[in-house]
Structure prediction request, 153 residues.
Amino acid sequence: RVMRIALAADHAGFRLKAAVARAVAEAGHEVLDLGTWSEEPVDYPPICARCARTVVLGEADVGIVIGGSGQGEALAANKVRGARAALCHDEYTARFARRHNDANLLSLGARIVAEELALDIVAVFLTTGFDGGRHATRLAQISAIEDEEASRP
Prediction:
């Protein structure tokens, strides 16, 4: 199935974002490139939040955020209500982020994973479905926590 994939990166993830964009486009998916568009230093939080919002609002099916380690990018994306960004360094974590957590964003560290592995991780993330069942109950619990936190003064 053709998906709309939102991509976002900071300067450290810029080159890997370009490789991911090429690979997903070659696989027949639509790419929404949300920046950055160079290796000039930028702050990643607003870029990653925009990517997460794009997914949560239904303007993209999934999002991929990329930075040096991917850690800050996942943290920033996960501040958006409804975002479930998973930092993945291998195919196993990508597979189970989708199967058990229904992750809707993938976070990659361009200084952690080589391009070939990153593309394999992306492929697994995009082709793995959510198992549902007991995992859906847990996701509902996560959403309830999110709702509680959103209503705090």
Remarks:
- The helical segments are 14-26, 44-56, 71-77, 91-101, 115-127, 134-150.
- The chain is about 50% helix and 15% strand.
